[in-house]
Amino acid sequence: MNARASRPAPHTTLRPMRESDVDAVYSIEVRAYPFPWTAGIFRDCLRADYPCWVLIEESCLIGYFLMSLAADEAHVLNICIAPEAQGHGHGRRLLRSAVQLARARGAQRVFLEVRPTNKAAIALYDSEGFNEIGRRPRYYPATNGREDALVMAIELLPPE
């Protein structure tokens, strides 16, 4: 028997981000992205009272999402799983939690941007019902200039 298969999956919990989480969040950000957000941006999002949540696995912060809500729309600003924790469904859990939170707060649609080169993220968003609705030219910094962003959205239909 494979010892790895016999171990139970680690327990994860989702909770609101706190100011004391910013250093751990920033540590993940710089390992996950070639052009990371600054720690100050995360602090600004907390101060602006944006919904900011962290995913904890065995007392270690392994992921986060931040979004803005205005009127009947939500915008996922950042969603990330630590590189060493990717590939285990944590990103899907965060995305579903963000959509659920948006729905609970009255949003009728959720938007996000993604690099066209981030095939794994695009596949996740597509599998969760997001559709490409446009492009933002030269949106992201890139090694050789700028990279476009794909704009994706999902309509949050009322429960049947």
Q: Could you spell the SSE succession in H and E letters?
A: HEHHEEEHEHEE
What is the beta-strand fraction? 35-45%
* CATH H level, superfamily name: Gcn5-related N-acetyltransferase (GNAT)
| Tally of individual domains | 1
Largest beta-sheet details: 7 strands, mixed
Shape assignment:
globular
Helix content: 25-40%
**Low-confidence regions:** 1-8
Number of strands: 7
Radius of gyration: 16 Å
What is the CATH architecture assignment? 3-Layer(aba) Sandwich
Structural class: alpha+beta
CATH class: Alpha Beta
- What spatial order of strands do you see in the largest sheet? 1-2-3-4-5-7-6
How is the CATH topology named? Aminopeptidase
Distance between the termini: 45 Å
Number of helices: 5
The average pLDDT is 93
Protein described:
It contains five helices and seven strands; from the N terminus they run H-E-H-H-E-E-E-H-E-H-E-E. With about 160 residues, it is α+β, with helices and mostly antiparallel strands. The N terminus is likely disordered. It has one domain: Aminopeptidase (3-Layer(aba) Sandwich). It comes from uncultured Lysobacter sp. It catalyses: N-terminal L-alanyl-[ribosomal protein bS18] + acetyl-CoA = N-terminal N(alpha)-acetyl-L-alanyl-[ribosomal protein bS18] + CoA + H(+).
